[in-house]
Amino acid sequence: MQRRTNLVTTRRPSISAVLQKTIRALAEVPAMRNVAKMSQPGSREFLTFAAIRARWRLGGSTAGQSRFQREVQQRLGALPQFFTPSDAAPQLAEQLWMQAKAAYLDNPLPSLFKERLFVHLSRFCEVRYCVVRHAGYLLGKGYPAGDARAVPETIEQVIALLSRPVPHAAQLEAVFARLESYSKPAPIPAPRSKAEEDLFDAITVMFVVPARSAQARAAVRCAVGETAFEYLAALLAFIRTAHYWTETHPGLSYETDMIMQMAQRQDLARRLLDTADAEWAHVGDALREALTGQLQVLNTELQHRTRNLLSVIQVIFDRTRAKHTTLESFADVFSSRLDAISRVQTYLSRLVQGEKVTFDGLLRTELAAHAVSLQQITLEGPVGVRLRSSTLQTFALAIHELVVNAVKYGALAIPTAHLTVRWEVEHCEEQQPLLHVQWQETGVNTAVNDSAAVQAGYGRELIERALPYQLRAKTEYEVMPEGVRCMISVPVLT
Question: What is the CATH number of domain 357-491?
Fold first, then answer.
């Protein structure tokens, strides 16, 4: 009985009172002025609760709507101001609608993913119409991405999405590394998962600074695959169109469903409308800092690679000098090894940012440098196996030594002999993938051929000692009666 008494005697304020109270509380927020003015009697935009209710009923009715507006209402579950035809160019609204259907509504990416991404990226638009409207869809004020079957999110979940900070440089580097570590494209991640957060951070860079987003694009493409990446690009293009349209048409007003929602939840209203606290006000500085941080990281990496390169050259010099007694023979071999290093550097310089040197590309480049006949060679293995940058120089030198020895003493020195190189990638649980390379020469009579250099040369020393020590590789090197047989297993990116 006491519980019943409390329910009867405790009176909650009416929605009208909450609306007026919220409007007064937010009247000082610059982006809320268009709502605050509605509460002031005498204003041309004065809007009482009764008027709001009338507009609400009108917005939910299809009476007097055109075929185009009825289609929008049916598909979105609401009729947004965004698609209101202009008297000056009435056909443009329908053209925007066609673009929305193609790139956004009919885009096969998951509905909640599309809507959450739309809300997330709309934080970075100075005009707040898009973030308000699409937060409404996400909350069930209409349909998320036009999908009536999609389960709406709670206000707390939307506020959490709006509150995520822009990542700084170190976080972006870690994000890109995680996305690039995918051994194969993964499905679009579930809402609020760590994988979705990584994807949103990389896509943020693509969206806000597209001209400097090569690494972000490569990471996203690796994580989701080529097809999903293209659908993502189409969605981003429409979001950018929506932002530009609202920025050039700032007179678009918020729909009454979201006015009422913000009136009831001031914490949501502040996130959506308070331009002093919204993330977009700081995104320029944050991303400039992130990009500056990336440049610092790249500069540090360049210095590190330069030191490594000099160390490699010093080791090559010492080993070559120890194996050759004449200046002429030393110069020829040392020059050849420097050329191998130069080819790797040239290969690296031609890559787009975010790309990696691949094994098959490295192998074909080295074979082409020695003008060998491909008729004597069989190459079998997957294309595009990406090598780690930190291991590239040493691994490239090992391939160079195998090719040089084959050209001088092995299968590529004898027209009737043959070289077979096979490779495959093994994906291991909780470990980096392993690239297994099998180098097999046949048709070489090692008993007749001068194989002393092959038996105890720098190439064998590099493969048997340097690769396991520096690259954590597993290697086998044998001089068989018909030629060299070499096995190398080394960690790779994919």
Answer: 3.30.565.10
